[in-house]
Amino acid sequence: MDFSNASPESHCISELLDSSDGEEEEILMYGEDLELNPFDGLPYSSRYYKLMKERQELPVWKVRCAFMESLLHHQIVIVSGDAKTGKSSQVPQWCAEHCLAAGCRHGAAVCSQARGQVAVRLALRAADEMDVNIGHEVGYFVPFESCCTTETILRYCTDDMLQREMMSAPLLNSYGVIILDDVHERTVPTDVLLGVLKHVLRARPALRLVILTAPHMSSKLQDFCGSVPLIRVENEHQAEVVYTCSMPKDHFLSALRLLFELHHTKEKGDIVIFLACEQDIDKAYQMIRQEQSNSNPDLGELIPVPLYPTRNDLIPKPNQDKQKCYQKYRRKVLLTTSSGGSLIRIKNITFVIDVGVERRKVYNPRIRADSVTTQPISKAQAEMHKQILSTSPSGKLFCLYPEEFTYKEMKPDFPAKIQESNLTSMVLFLKRMDIAGFRHCEFLSRPAPESLMQALEDLDYLAALDNDGNLSEFGIIMSEFPLDPQLSKSILASCEFECVDEMLTIAAMVTAPNCFLHTPSGTEEIALTCWRKFSHPAGDHFTLINVFNAFREASTNSAGQCCSNEKWCRNYFLSCSALRMAEMIRAELVEIMKRIELPISAPDFGSPENTLSIKKALLSGYFMQIARDVDGSGNYLMLTHRQVAKLHPFSSYYNTRRSPEWVLFHEFSISEDNSIRVVSEISPHLFVELAPQYYFSNLPPSESKDILQEVIDQLSPVSTTKEKQKANSDNKENEKYPQAPTEQRCIIQ
Fold first, then answer.
1. pLDDT digit string, tens, across residues 260-319
2. Can you give the residue ranges of the Helicase ATP-binding domain (predicted)?
3. Which residues pair with 670 in a beta bridge?
């Protein structure tokens, strides 16, 4: 996501990605009568006419009349187009014109995006092309940042934010046109919106739904939506595709080797590399910078630009002159993954390198964990990589796989994330929509029943459901937070244990991108030494509080000195943009707490009582994520299944003399090196006190469960005997006076 107070590095990246040629704008005169902008009533500027000429050259402009006609007479319109045709930037503007022509009687236009940084960029571009001010006639709202007013007629947002808006306004009455963009990416919120909006359309005949997608999804969407208009947009240019003879042993090194070969040819143009994962982006960035420092200056400068689809933090540039960001570079190298195509917005791309594989996280509901696997990309993704070059007639796509690999190994479409993700948050949203009357949601692709059952079970454990399976009052409050339900539960529990201030900081830090940077080769020990200054003996959650508090103290000491703040982060190998985002997230969480009138306790971090309270709050939400060191050597066995994991290298317990026996962890993924992230020590007694009894009884048999049972027996031997005696007495009474069977209730502690 992009934020207005992002780090200077992000501004440098924005400059690098700016496709303008730097020429001064030409002053255009159009006679004495000035044409007025219908959106703000002011005369158009000369820049508006210049941009209008560029807009009219876009492939999508050819279908403008057909689209406006379809929008006038149909509730749903599907626009199917290749990448770089202009549909994401132009269609929402046409929808805003449609709303304005109707006098905004039915509301404004809103366009959802899968990623926050794309929503912000498109809003800025639309405001520029419409010749209006951002934040007034055109605006955006993304997680933890809003730049809109009640008068905004065109809004860009993320799909999850539009979904959250439906919780308070189920019929979305403030909108006359809703645009769902990048539907082919199959995110969970977009798939859910498609289903829920079908109910809204029936209730609001004047509402319009516009669906923007890639060509391979158009027939599936027509089947889902019924008989609706389909408008196709195609690119004029087709890129040349070069395949390798065989699969390389190492896709990553092969891609970098090809990059340096292309750079040595001195052919002009920028390069895009689609890598397998974001960790490869980090490695490639460092290797390119190192190679550049040793290369022949006559070849020109090679500047890597990392584009992360799932995080906003950027790799710092140590010892770099700030003004260097603004000079002309010879060649830019955009590093991203297969899902980062929408982040690419420069025009002069000549070469694209595609490794053909990606690392995907697939959620396994049986063990409540993600499995990380490397698998081929889909044919649709491969086609979209080729479309990046649609504006370059001489562009070349280098596929690091043979052509037959496309037909034998690649699946046709993007995988639907609703079939690969943890659905607990989605089910919580749908349960909230039950209150609004939407009891049935149609899905474009049905989620696995096992995933839905696991989500319902987890919500029940978290006390978010009542005995009838409906959302409880506790669940309604949980749904107000834009967080994972377990984290929401921990925040609510912190009100009881009077550690709200600290829990909000933890929630912000684990929600923001990882603040610990991937260090360049040779600096690992220096970074670890810096990070140990923040370590807390109670665990990583407490270490994150130390990092956040130290960052805020550094910000206070260097108030008004942005560079000093950046320097502090660089000195400690921390991501300044991630920490700033954590500040924004925390501020938003504080506002939510105030809005729903929940108490915020005074900070007391560091006292033994506060440490115990934080652990209790964490356990209230994360009792399903407990592991035990089974052999004293750091091999942690999950309490809910048979998987074994090690501590992640970023953990404050990593490579220390003492590994805690029982830990609570925030994240666990099954991969080549199973590891648990963000770990804090707990005691069996705390677990027994705070975990629901019926959750404990459902755990599979294990040595860890036996140990916990012994703790239960030790804590309450007398009460257990009394309970047995009372049960025997009740049985005798029931034999004398038979009673009607009562409904079995779930006891949530």
1. 998 888 788 889 999 999 889 988 988 888 887 777 777 778 888 888 887 644 433 433
2. 68-234
3. 371
On whether the CB atoms of residues 308 and 281 are closer than 8 A, the answer is yes
Helices marked H in 597-692? 608-622, 684-690
DSSP 417-456: GGGTS--HHHHHHHHHHHHTT------SSPPPHHHHHHHH
Specify the residue for token string 């199973």.
674
Any idea what DSSP says for residue 113? E
CB 365 within 8 A of CB 373: no
428-460, pLDDT tens digit by residue? Answer: 999 998 887 777 788 999 999 999 999 999 999
Strand partners, 273: 335, 353
- What angle, 0 to 180 degrees and rounded to 10, lies between the N-to-C axes of helices 424-435 and 188-203? 10
Residue 343, helix vs strand vs coil: helix
Contacts 24+ apart (CB under 8 A), 21-29: 25/50, 26/50
Contact 418, 189 (CB under 8 A): no
Give the Cα separation of 526 and 242 in Å (integer): 43
Instruction: Say how far residue 132 (Cα) sits from the centre of its chain.
Output: 29
Burial (0-12, 13-18, 19+ Cβ within 10 Å), 225: buried
What is the C-alpha to C-alpha distance for residues 681 and 723, in angstroms, rounded to an integer?
32
Structure-token pair, residue 584: 């924004």
Q: Look up residue 466 and give its two tokens.
A: 């009542």
Please state the φ and ψ torsions of residue 473, each to the nearest 5 degrees: -60, -35
Sort strands 644-647 and 369-376 into parallel, antiparallel or unpaired: unpaired
CA–CA separation, 729 vs 732, rounded Å? Answer: 5
DSSP state of 153: S
What does the block give as tokens for 189?
């919120």
Query: Does residue 49 sit in helix, strand or coil?
Result: helix
Q: 158 forms bridges with which residues in the sheet?
A: 113
What residue type is assigned to position 366 of the chain? R
Q: What are the φ and ψ backbone dihedral angles of 545, each rounded to 5 degrees?
A: -65, -40
Q: Which residue has the tokens 């009640």?
A: 150
Phi and psi, residue 729, nearest 5°: -65, -40
Contacts of 748 (CB under 8 A, 6+ apart): 460, 461, 463, 692
Q: Which two tokens stand for residue 99?
A: 């709303």
Closest CA to 336 of 379, 298, 385: 385
Give the single-character DSSP code of 740: P
Mean pLDDT calculated for residue range 59-84:
94
Here the tokens at position 437 are: 């009357």
